[in-house]
Write a structure and sequence with these properties.
about 425 residues; alpha+beta; Monooxygenase; Neuraminidase; 2 domains; five-stranded antiparallel β-sheet; four-stranded antiparallel β-sheet; 29 strands; about 20% helix
Length: about 425
């Protein structure tokens, strides 16, 4: 009995022992097994991602939201290489992942600034084009950051998700010597890089993009005091970062505009002379015609007469048609040129009060977003609008944005451009 009693006492659990055992059991269930599961899942996930072939990974990455593209390029070298390929861009376009973004580049005092308009969000977002960190890492940017009007006569062209800003004027007073270059802005990585400058540092020239090549023509030498109008034409090859000369235009054009339709480069309007030729001011003599260049044959085709005269101040392309905004001293007119049948059509002008004081300070730019033409006021002021809005004095800038729907053939008012102006350059990027 004593032995049994002793054994019974020995087997009797201590007070609180059952709770302790349960607690240990729960801890064992929720710690070690879960840790093992997480570790196993991480190994499987890592193995699965690394084992995906490039075409499958391309399909996955093509569906990444635009806001995450920058961070996605930082994941690994393999992802970065895939995201920078033309196949990746084409696939995003095919599955409808690209959105039209309207970029406006322009100076605000000293420095480079930008504004971005997204039609889906319906608003502008403004900010500096280059950050302080970018200036530290890229000393050549100081030549443009310190220039008050670096982009006043610059022309932007777009190749996929990159914007090439041609003809930007560096500051000659910079300690870096005013390095001339082509500024390349990547809308995905939001970075600025330096490209080769044009063979001739020109201003007020025409430019366009055809088959991943950039073409420029006309203008005047920016470093020449006489600023005589030019006939020189150049081609830029992005993969080589190099320019090469092409056949010259049949006539001199200064302040001309460029457009590309179905592989043809159209050079529109302009002046026969620049504002100053030699030591004398020249009268404004407009070139009332339009020349066209075929890159396949490296030749200029027959000249076409402009029905509105030569003072075309902005243009853009929608489908196979070129839409042109023309100035007539006290009013604006709007025209459509159909390249298929070479026909002209005068369209109801933008809803801007007239008469206007059209001069060198009142500037407009045209851009295409979808099937709509955006006319953006990038400089000057409109006296009639100032008076109607109750403001007195001159020199205020409205930053008007007027939208023409080419299908409905109707005008509407878009949100005004933010403070970013001062001779801005406009471009639309699909990204």
């Amino acid at each position: 009995m004593e032995v049994a009693s002793s054994a019974t006492q020995h087997c009797k659990p201590k007070k609180g022992g059952s709770k302790r055992c349960l607690r240990n059991l729960v801890r064992a269930c929720w710690t070690t097994p879960i840790s093992e599961c997480e570790e196993a899942a991480a190994v499987v996930e890592e193995s699965a991602l690394s084992s995906l072939p490039d075409d499958v990974l391309l399909e996955c990455l093509a569906r990444v939201h635009r806001a995450a593209l920058h961070s996605s390029m930082m994941v690994c070298q393999r992802w970065r290489q895939i995201l920078k390929t033309s196949q990746y861009y084409d696939l995003r376009k095919q599955i409808g992942m690209l959105d039209s973004l309207l970029f406006v580049f322009g100076g605000v005092g000293a420095g480079l600034a930008s504004a971005i308009y997204c039609k889906s969000s319906g608003g502008w977002k403004a900010g500096l084009l280059c950050t302080y960190r970018a200036l530290v890492e890229n000393e050549w940017l100081l030549d443009y950051y310190s220039a008050d009007h670096a982009l006043l006569h610059a022309q932007p062209t777009v190749l996929r998700n990159r914007i090439f800003i041609l003809g930007a004027a560096p500051s000659p007073s910079s300690k870096w010597g005013g390095l001339d270059c082509t500024i390349i802005y990547d809308a995905w990585t939001k970075t600025l890089t330096r490209g080769s400058p044009m063979l001739c540092p020109r201003k007020k020239f025409a430019c366009c993009v055809i088959s991943n090549r950039i073409y420029v023509a006309g203008g005047a030498n920016r470093n020449d005091y006489n600023r005589d109008a030019m006939v020189d034409t150049e081609e830029y090859i992005p993969e080589l970062d190099a320019w090469k000369p092409l056949a010259s235009m049949p006539r001199k054009r200064y302040g001309c505009l460029g457009a590309a339709v179905d592989g043809i480069f159209y050079v529109i309007g302009g002046l026969k002379f620049s504002s100053m030729f030699g030591l004398c001011m020249q009268p404004y003599a407009y070139v009332r015609s339009m020349d066209s260049y075929d890159p396949k044959t490296n030749s200029w085709q027959k000249t076409k007469v402009l029905p509105m005269g030569g003072c075309v101040i902005a243009c853009t392309v929608v489908g196979s048609a070129i839409y042109m905004l023309s100035s007539h001293a006290v009013e604006l007119s709007f025209w459509k040129y159909n390249t298929l049948d070479e026909s002209w059509c005068k369209i109801r002008p933008p809803p801007i009060p007239s008469p206007l004081r059209i001069d060198n300070y009142l500037k407009f730019s045209c851009a295409t977003v979808g099937n709509s033409v955006y006319i953006i006021q990038v400089g000057g002021s409109i006296d009639d609008l100032l008076r109607r809005s109750g403001r007195n004095g001159r020199g205020l800038k409205e930053g008007l944005v007027l939208v023409y729907d080419t299908i409905l053939q109707e005008w509407s008012r878009g949100p005004d451009l933010p403070y970013v102006k001062n001779g801005a350059a406009c471009a639309v990027v699909q990204c």
